[in-house]
Amino acid sequence: MKSIPRASFTAALLAFALVAQSTDIGGHWTVRYVRGVAWKTIGGAEFEFKVDGDRLTGTANVGQGYPGTAPISHGKIKGDRISFTVYG
């Protein structure tokens, strides 16, 4: 039986306003999803980025349990923008 990913999480162009160069984004990043006037946290994700030139790899943990932890694929760095895909 062929396995098909149950969900996909795509970050088309995730831009970071960094003072440092784009190659300095390697390491652990935490994202919180918020909403409303009180900025209530409604979810989040954690990323472990590895940089090799203009190539971005690593892992993403999106949600508790589902879709969970998955490798980053199709990662690219162009100036101060990154793009990647995560299938869970």
The tally of strands reads 6
**Rg from Cα:** 14 Å
Structural class: mainly beta
What's the rounded overall pLDDT mean? 76
Description:
Strands 1-6-5-4-3-2 form a six-stranded antiparallel sheet, with no helix packed on it. The chain is globular, with a radius of gyration of 14 Å. The two termini are 18 Å apart. The model is unreliable at 1-22 (pLDDT under 50). The chain has no helices and six strands. With 88 residues, it is mostly beta strands.
SSE topology:
Elements: E1 8-15, E2 27-35, E3 40-52, E4 55-62, E5 68-78, E6 81-87
Tags for this entry?
single chain, 88 residues, mainly beta, 6-stranded antiparallel β-sheet, disordered N terminus
Q: What is the gist of this entry?
A:
This protein is mainly β and about 90 residues long.
